[in-house]
Amino acid sequence: MPDIAAQCDVEANDGLTPSEVYFRSTKKVFRRCDEGHLFDAAIRSRTERGTGCRVSAKQSVEAGINDLATTHHELAAEWGHEANAHLTPTEIVSGSEKRSFADAQRGVLTLQSFTSVDAL
Fold first, then answer.
1. pTM for the whole thing?
2. pLDDT in tens, 77-94
3. Rounded CA gap, 51 and 30, in Å?
4. How many Å apart are CA 4 and CA 112, to the nearest integer?
């Protein structure tokens, strides 16, 4: 598990190092994924289940990193802002199953999800 230990962010963990914890511990520690995102996870969830960074896995939105406005700005430009008053392109990731309205250039609102956006 040296690859998992290498992700440990000692500074963010107040000096705690991988050699000071049990690999099945439920203690949450901070890690840096391969893309550089800081995330916290229980040691056990990384060592036994292989869970990782939620931002990299598109399970969590981080504006400016993986949101629709950043990754697919051409689709965000078609966003139906009035119809989606509860949601903005910075609050959704491509691949999301959330349904929202896109305001096409003709002014017609269409309801869509972004589950297949990455295939574009």
1. 0.65
2. 888 878 877 888 898 887
3. 13
4. 37
